[in-house]
Amino acid sequence: MPSTRKRPLLLTRLERKTASVGIVGLGYVGLPLALTLTQAGFHVVGVDINREKVQSLSQGKLPFAQREPGLRALLQKMNALGTCDFSDEFRRLRTLDAIIITVQTPLRGHLIPDYRILMPAIHSVSSVIKKAALLVVQSTVAPRTSRDQICPLVEKLTAFKIGRDLFYAHVPERVMPGAMLQTLQDLPRIIGADDDISRQAARLLYEPITRGHIDLTDTTTAETAKTAENAHRYAEIQFANALALTCERYGVSYQKVRNLANKRSNVHLLQPGSGVGGHCIPKDPWLLVAKHRKSLLRSLFLVGNAVNEFMVDHTVILVQRGLRKAHVQAKGAQVAVLGYSYREGSDDIRSTPTQGVVEKLHKVGIRCTIHDPLVSLYRRKKIEDVIHGKDAIVIVTAHQEYRDYPLSRIKQLLKHPIIIDGRQTWSRKEVVKHGFIHLQIGEPNEH
Ligand code: SAJ
């Protein structure tokens, strides 16, 4: 028996790409998404409360230094075509057919989800969203947040019934920094919705920009899958870090062990490092277990937290060991700390391990000068000026600039030839060939 219900106009508009779409939150996720939807033919309004960011976008300038191939060119092209508006006013969303929220959801206190950016955004959107529109939350949230918190709040604020008067989906983002535009389109996409029209609407919205497979499921499964995939990465990094410490203890090279073990097609050892930063990996495990606080998973993550946080201390231990090897008094020593963003190629400093490394070096009397070619606060000084006259360098984020910098030049600039590598910047063979004292996480660093 065909359904007597009229097909919502929303579905037709989305199918024909005559729908208008609003993006709330123009950050690393929201901006590429806004431009990609514009390029696909939708009329897009990008909204952000940060007026300066909106102004710089309207002038074709990116609000971050992170290298994102193609993003600046796409922004300038969409601006020239006038098909993507930027605004700091939520009222611009009033007539739109679909609104996507892409604001960040950090942690606060002791590993508790912090929705103090997300919930006000939901309030603001609920005050303007029109009837029969589609609301999508892309922000990463704890499982059951859509069902227990977001949807009841939206229904209360709008007096609309989701699934009848308004449509809702949770569509988690899977972009990879440094390749945002490409991965936004190539990676498979999960669409979580709890009624058929919401599911169909979200699929029609994302299909034109998704070359990867689209999986349809319910909101809680989507929330769980997203937080689980990043929690899995967190646990993989935790394992790499713990194994690296054991390799050091055995006097064997983690890199050699990793190369041998990864020859097995079902083994994928990641890389150890000075710590785990960013706005996803350190956070998502705690979102995953936020509503299951007595879970075994949480105990696993607590151990992981201790391991990943210990890597900061271990980096400090290696610096002290390197100075001792050169008979340099740690107290009063001066080191160049290279790399402040949480990962190479990024200017994002959220939860960066470098902050912990610097604080702990200061605590033992070692003075630090920080450099980072992408972070505005630390890119003013030239790298040679930061290294010149120091007792050692410690790499915490291995930007390409550091990998390309000649070791012979570093040797000339340093007072003592000491390199502590918290990542995999150079090969030990190369560094030792240049006559450095070299300590690296996961490598034999005789005591
Ligand atoms: N890290 C290690 N060892 C590794 C990999 C990373 O110590 O082998 C550290 C990094 O130095 C950094 C932190 O972990 O401090 C996070 O790095 P990341 O490479 O996981 O990058 P993120 O945080 O930008 O993770 C994002 C995630 N994407 C989304 O959530 C949409 C993640 O799912 C991706 O797998 C990751 O990008 C990626 O692969 O680029």
Which value, in Å, is the CA radius of gyration?
24 Å
Mean pLDDT: 95
Question: How widely separated are the two ends?
Answer: 78 Å
**Strand percentage, roughly?**
5-15%
* Shape type: elongated
Please tally the helical runs, counting DSSP H or I stretches of 4 or more residues. 17
Largest sheet: 6 strands, parallel
What is the SS-derived class?
alpha/beta
The ligands bound in this entry are: ligand SAJ
Strand order of the largest sheet: 3-2-1-4-7-8
Helix content: 40-55%
The total count of strands amounts to 15
Extract low-pLDDT stretches: none
Walk me through the structure.
The structure is a single chain. α17 (428-433) links the parallel β14 (418-421) and β15 (437-440). This protein has helices at 9-16, 30-39, 51-58, 71-81, 118-126, 145-158, 180-186, 196-206, 219-250, 254-261, 284-288, 296-325, 353-363, 383-387, 400-404, 407-413, 428-433; strands spanning 20-24, 43-47, 84-87, 98-101, 107-108, 112-113, 134-137, 167-170, 189-192, 214-217, 334-338, 367-371, 392-395, 418-421, 437-440. It is α/β, with parallel strands linked by helices and 447 residues long. A six-stranded parallel beta sheet has the order 3-2-1-4-7-8, sandwiched between helices. The longest helix has 32 residues, at 219-250. The protein is 42% helix and 13% strand. The termini are far apart. Bound molecules: ligand SAJ.
